[in-house]
Amino acid sequence: MDDVSDEVPWQQRALDNIWVLIVISLVVPGLLYLGWGLWELAELPTWGGG
Amino acid sequence: MTTLTAPPSRVCNVTGFVIDRNGQRLALANVVAGVVLLAFGGSLAILIALQRQGLPISDDWWYRLVASHGATMLLFWLLLFEVGALYWGSTMLLNARMRLPRLAWANFAMMVVGILMAQWAMLTGRATVMFTAYPPLTAHWAYYLGVLLFAVGVLVACILFFTNVLTARRERTYEGSLPLVVYGLVAAAVIALYSLLTGAVAYGLLFLQSVGVIENVDPATYRLFFWGIGHGAQQVNLAAMVAVWYALVGFTLGGRPVNEGLSRFAFLLLIAFIHLGAVHHLLVDPGLGTSHRIMNTSYLLYLAVLASLIHAFSIPAAMEVAQRERGYTQRLFTWLKKAPWREPGFSSLVLSIVYFGFIAGVTGVLMGTMQLNMLIHNTLFVVGHFHATVVSGTTLAFMGISYYLLPLLSQRRLVGVRMARWQPYVFAGGLVILTAAMLVAGQLGVPRRVADLEYSGSPIGVTLFETGPTPAIMLIVSIGALMAVAGGIMYVAVMVLTLLKGEHTDRPDAGLGFAFGTPERERRAAAQEEAAVATAQATLTAEAPTEDRRPRRWAKFEAPGTYVLVLGFLAWFVVMYLVAHLNLARAWPVG
Predict the structure, then answer these.
(1) Tens digit of each residue's pLDDT (9 = 90 or more) over B98-154
(2) Structurally, how many domains does chain B consist of?
(3) Angle between helices B101-123 and B59-71 (to 10 degrees)
(4) ipTM (interface pTM)
(5) Domain membership flag for residue B146
């Protein structure tokens, strides 16, 4: 969404940007749910059946 | 020699939108396939409910039925319908064209093949691993591959949806910002990406194990990835359902959100934080630290709950404002009393919002609290919660919009209008009985996903059903299930009859007795006229005060009735929380 109409405020333009939304949707749960969770599991002595 | 073919697009005589025929056919195919699967999953529900009342179904078959019912209802029906909604929203609501239609059809075929593979494995007893499929339970490779094919199909559909939206923006087929309904669908598709990626990892690992490529899959790691899709898919449903709610306000009342920017911000909160709620499935997993579990479910998730609360205010407020603009301004709730309760879209909308908020949302937040979760984990309470979300909320909303979508997409007049008017009440009535009884049964300790609730032949005795109210409550569960199925049959009947017997017409809205919103061209003309009048008035009466015709005590509120309703919801929330903590105190007395 590069060429957005001028009358749309920049805040709304940012919220309208699909790429921004995709990055947010991947980064936030990717870090807080998945990354943090994997970090904790990796600290277990039996992780991965080891 | 020239060949006569249908032009690639047409103008809809009902809405005024330019309709791309490829988008129209693809949306219709996905919606119809979804309805077929809903009918199939519903028929399994009858058997599951009757088994609880003595219908002779072996334990082996019961697990097959529950596995298939869960996958069909939680994944296949809803996601197929949502793919249809994505194609509808990205083409018809934007006056835009469907990109890569051949790829979209091939993708649809792949999804159907995936569903058939998974169903074959489940119904032949090769994949009775249930929806969660936790290792070390192992299923036939066809089950994992089938689900993977379906998930990849949904992922491709999301990418096609994004491509359509970006093309529409580049070709300027719409003005300004994305319409809010399409924005809600964007949120659903964006949420789906993370969900499908985590699901691909989880099911991909199990598929590799099932064909012998890897030796074992770490159960804790699997569960972490699985709940990215297990719960994440329900968040896709949530965002799509909210988008459908906004669409239904437009269809039934011609209403628009009172603050569109706030509604968009609420979608952003969902996109960022809703996935974190998946941790509540892992609250009893010992591998994850307490900080991880509590921070995600009891703090960060509340930002997504805030989003739901914003929508829960915004949508009824849009209804009230629309009704007050029509002149229903007399009392606090005259607008609600005079609402089109006979329109299936409106009744579905209101019932879906009420049940989703009062039962599904509240029980979800309760289950997200670690201490309360310990009381009801793996009981029928959880099943009651997700039937309230996915069935009372999402399915009912999707049924409601079908009464508009199917005639518009098939260009056929709705058949069975009287049945359609009653259907939401029968379906929702059954569900409120079903879910309430399930929630109570769960609190009494009735387990979920167990074929033999009495553990016959087990060396550990279970006295749950010998005395007390449990058998009666389980009977109420079955009655509620059968009533909900009856409502589902009414819905499927209207859909099938419309497709097979409905009059083919370019005005499918005519003669139905309910509105299809404000046609796009009329809305644009009205907006232009309104702008011209406002400019003229501003010139003539620049300093003149405007008269406020609302009753004096409500003069500060645009939607006073909604404000009162929201306060009532808040009070209900507090009461439910106190009751839950009272139960907790009884379970674990202090001192």
Answers:
(1) 999 999 999 999 999 999 999 999 999 999 888 888 988 889 999 999 999 999 999
(2) 1
(3) 160
(4) 0.86
(5) yes
Report whether B443 contacts B50 (CB < 8 A): no
Give residue-wise pLDDT tens across range B222-239: 999 999 998 898 889 999
Chain A contact for B286 (CB, 8 A cutoff):
no
Sign, CA torsion B194/B199/B205/B207: negative
Q: Which residues of B touch A33 (CB under 8 A)?
A: 224, 228, 275-276, 278-279, 296
Which of B178, B282, B299 to mutate to test binding with chain A, by most A CBs within 10 Å of its CB?
Answer: B178
Q: Is A28 on the interface with B (CB under 8 A)?
A: yes
Strand B18-20 relative to strand B9-11: parallel, antiparallel, unpaired? Answer: antiparallel
* Stated pTM of the model: 0.89
Residue B281 lies inside a defined structural domain of this protein: no
How would you class B458 by CB atoms within 10 Å of its CB: exposed for 0-12, middle for 13-18, buried for 19 or more? exposed
- A-B Cβ pairs (cutoff 8 Å, strict): 99
Closest CA to B62 of B119, B120, B123: B123
Looking up residue B72, the CATH number of its domain turns out to be 1.20.210.10
Instruction: State whether residue A22 sits within 8 Å of chain B by CB.
Output: yes
